[in-house]
Design goal:
Chain lengths: ~260, ~55
């Protein structure tokens, strides 16, 4: 069981709700994922399409909403979005993201830490999206973050766990849950993150844009479960040289 | 946009066929609390932002 800020979740797969082709597909994919925590974004009401309301589509009893601050380019914008999220009934949970560069969508560490300090002080349960920086992860933990969310690779790239080495250090040092977020494009990427001891992963694009998002959601759920089982089982060490798995003795009859 | 004289924030939201419980309103940079919607009358030149949740990662 995964516990974040005192809240227990059975599923270690968090799912983002962006980019789905329809509400119906999204709902079915979330169901197949087994996820209990989903991210949502805040945007200006589109008066041309007022019917599209995610609050009507998702059952809040079933899914814990994790509003994000996507679109924020500095701490002030993130804080403003966070307060709006709470006012909109989003609760106290917050995926804090500050991404000033639209080309890379890499998070700004200084502004993220600044915003985290303010929002923790306002009672938010802050889950910051960060580059896989072990020092920053510790600073955010000290600032009261409920978890840290290091990236595997840039948002939406499906490139997998390019930051494995740094994420491993973050996991070794962390006193709060580590959720690998962004860039996990295949179930094997998610399994890899779980095998090295990540507490959870967050996946959006890889599920939402798959040919069959529902089956891909299921595939990620299985991979996350498999990776966690492997981690808890205690993996054997890797070696340079071959080591026979069959007995080396008892071959006298051959020669 | 132009709205009816004396309309409240809640009136505007309902006129736009939005659910007042699923929208957050910011009037001149200040977030209005849900219980303030009905009593907030819109004034000429006021900047009103209506924000809501959408799908996102």
């Amino acid at each position: 069981m995964l516990t974040i800020a005192g809240h227990t979740l059975r599923s270690r797969l968090l799912v983002g709700t962006g980019k789905f082709s329809s509400s119906r597909v999204m709902r079915a994919a979330l169901e197949a994922s087994g996820s209990e925590m989903v991210t949502v974004a805040l945007r200006r009401v589109d008066l041309a399409d007022p019917a599209d309301d995610i609050m009507q589509v998702l059952d809040r009893q079933r899914y814990l909403f994790l509003p994000n601050t996507s679109g924020a380019r500095d701490a002030a914008e993130a804080v403003r979005l966070a307060r709006m999220a709470r006012a909109a009934g989003g609760g106290d949970w917050l995926k804090l993201e500050v991404t000033p560069d639209p080309r890379t969508l890499l998070p700004d560490p200084v502004e993220t830490l600044r915003a985290a300090e303010i929002l923790v002080g306002e009672g938010f349960k802050v889950l910051p999206y960060i580059n896989a920086d072990p020092i920053l992860a510790l600073k955010l933990q000290d600032a009261g973050a409920a978890a840290v969310m290091p990236l595997g690779s840039p948002i939406g790239t499906n490139q997998g766990l390019l930051t494995r080495f740094q994420v491993q250090i973050i996991i070794e040092q962390a006193g709060v849950p580590v959720i690998v977020d962004a860039g996990l494009g295949l179930p094997s990427h998610a399994a890899e993150a779980m095998e090295i001891g990540a507490d959870a992963v967050l996946v959006n694009t890889a599920i939402a844009v798959a040919g069959d998002p529902v089956r891909m959601a299921r595939a990620f759920a299985l991979a996350v479960e498999a990776g966690r089982e492997a981690y808890e089982s205690g993996a054997g060490r890797s070696t340079e040289r071959a080591e026979p798995s069959s007995p080396e003795t008892g071959l006298g009859f051959l020669r | 946009m132009t709205v009816r004289e004396g309309i409240s924030l809640e009136g505007l939201i309902l006129e736009l066929e939005l659910n007042p419980d699923a929208v957050v309103a910011e009037c001149d940079g200040r977030i209005a609390r849900r219980e303030e919607y009905a009593a907030t009358s819109l004034k000429d030149g006021m900047v009103v932002e209506l924000i809501r949740f959408v799908g996102g990662g």
